[in-house]
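User: Can you write out an input/output pair for a complex, sequences first and structure second?

Assistant: Here is one pair. Inputs:
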Amino acid sequence: MWRNPLALAVTLPALIVIIIGSTIAGAEETHKHTPTVKVIRDPALGDDAVARMENVIGQSIFERIWVSAPSSTEAADGLGPMFNARSCVACHPGGARGSVLNKDGSLGPSLLVRFGHKLTGAPDPIYGNQLQTDAARGVPADGKFSVDYALLETKLGDGTVVELRRPVVTLTGLADGPLAADTVTGLRLAPAIHGMGPLDSIPAELITAAADPDDQDANGISGRVNWIDEQAGTFGRFGWKAVQATMEAQNAHAFLADMGLSTPLFPDAYGECTVRQTICRAAPSGASSQFEDLEVSSTLMKVLDRYVGESVLPNGPAQSASAETIAKGRALFAEAGCGSCHKTSYDIVWPAGAAKTRHIAPYTDLLLHDMGDGLAEQVIEGEALGAEWRTAPLWGLRWAVAGEGDASLLHDGRARNLLEAILWHGGEALSARDQVAALSADDRQALISFLSSL
Amino acid sequence: MTTRQKLIAGSTIMIGLGLFAAGYANAKAPDEAAVLTNYANIAEAMFGDAISTAGNLQAPIDKLIAEPNAANLKAARQAWIDARPSYMRTEAFRFGNPEVDELEGLVNAWPLDEGLIDYVDAGSYGATSDSNPFYTLNVIANKELQIGADKVDATVIDKKLLQSLQEVGENEANVAIGYHAIEFLLWGQDLNGTGHGAGNRPASDFDTANCTNGNCDRRAAYLKAATELLIDDLGQMHAIWTDGGAARQRLLKGDAKEGIAGILTGLGSLSYGELAGERTKLGSMLHDPEEEHDCFSDNTHNSHYYDQVGMVDIYNGRYTRLDGTAVTGASVKDLVAAKDAAVNDRVVAALADTSKAMQVLKDTADSGGQAYDQMIGPDNAAGNKIVDDVVTGLVGQARAVEAAVAALGLKITVEGSDSLDNPTAVGQ
């Protein structure tokens, strides 16, 4: 189903926007946020030896560096022909969210460029849905990209001026000429993998019931389901625009698009190469007949899915804010209406078949919301329009903002800290954003402290 | 080999204590302190023996360097194979004893990106890795190394240089030292895949007069320094178990039940996670010879086998040293048997099942019929079964150990995570 993007109410954020210059990623940046955390197996899960062994093996698959076919390991080759990374962990370090920049200030593998037709979201006829920046020997990669930042300023209620950065992508060295005229681009940062099993277990009706596409309750918040098949009741809940219906699909799609590896769900050995990328289509396949004609067999997917589904973040790091400050921030979060989309908690049955329900607090409704022009890009994914994004879960922010240097928040890592991330909110979140911008410095800090504790 | 972080043993495991309302019911139960003392004595003896067998590497390696020929290379390789069993027997100490785990990476780090050390086959290994800038650093061929912004003088290859390169770039695949670095220097890459044969480095790689593959003097210096360092580092692992050593002190002065739980943690974690999972099942699932633990030498069957021998020794509280003397005393087995004889029988039976499966593995490889990397090959159902039987045995063993933990009223809990729940309980 296609909807005219102009039909959506466009809300301009109340920013005082001044383009004050641009900077090339990496040139001046000498520091970045370095994730130091590594996901662990959810300690609430049982001690069953087979389950724990499978989890350890799944972790090994997650960290495995894949090689291109042909190789000495028939069962475990098939990287590419085109790919963005050789392993899951290259983009999701320790299972945590990726950073835009490498330690040396260069653009890291965690950021990728998404393509789509500006009106339909259809793949670029040559380059497909994603820019693959690397390829097996003898196969040309799609190309490379660089990121510049437009710098903007916004003034808060107390007069504080905050600098924001908006990334601008430049594609370089495209192998087969320019993109089609109607192809538009977007950036996507590799998210953290923790908590995906529990998110997968939130009953569908709890998510769909919260949708209010026509804002019938007139609270300014709509919330749409990214339906894959509304008749069948299937809809997306994973990815920045909620395109993948299940954790398994999200994992398999990452194998396909990011690493060029075929799986039971996406069995094309040539990965994401299009029919017009003939060298890529003709490159050797890693699929072998004794392993289901796949590069990643169902056996391997099963343990990988277990690892991802069972991963959670460890406790910590220590909070510098007092309990009182955090409590105050929590109240401010509620007052500003952030919880309308960042829905706090659910009771779920997880793992499947568990005897009692479990209370989880991901802070997301998993629905699409119009986030305004500031965050809008033109790529359409499924029913998600350019300005629409899935409410990002907030659990785990405590690690995403920990450590020295800049964090990489929002879908393209543009926000270097939580305040910037909040100030980018517009559209349905404009009222909440404006309330935060109007807070006193103390209250603002309390809100940040609360978010930094999640 | 592929880059993969090794399991960080024990580092995220905290031992929680179950409540003992009335101590042990059975009067025959040994004193916990005596069990811990005997455990520390066995550790001290096992690491002592590992030092002596590693010491036996030095003479043949010196001879190989002095007279590089096939016979002397063969003798040096045999000395390495002979050195492995006494180290592998210690592995169950690694899990559950953080002092051991901290040092373990110095001697047994694996898997490794061997291009850090020496030349590799460009076709199968590749020239670059997106996760490891030092993937093909090749210390042996380069007298100056670019490490980040710094240039490191590598004119002289000595222990200090090698220590500085271990896990360079904070990447665990950059293994510069330890058994597997030495193994790579003695055998070279195994380029046979799941076919027959181990690594096949020629002795002339150490021959300064008729040098093959360049830099034979530097390769010899690397081998010699790495061997000396291995002995030094095993010395550190031994020292923590001697009188006043950190591990012995913690066990004897700390909470006894926590110590006992640590013994069982070691047996359980080595069984299911490390040995059954990462070192065995993963390779058989992938049918990937790169996932073989002693992959250069095709000695994996022995390294697995002696892991198991060590676990049996530790459970029984009895170890026969290389010189024939026995170290024996109160055991965790006695504790379990006194508390619940049936559970002890279950552990004993599970250990025996695994030992039996390991024996088949070892005999098959020792007979020359097929090496471990052939057994995990994709078209080898019989070989796959031999390996999978080992996994089944180890999993059963881990479950039996879990039952022993429960019987003793101990609780092994993994470090907590509130992530799924609301972490900030305040203000609600």
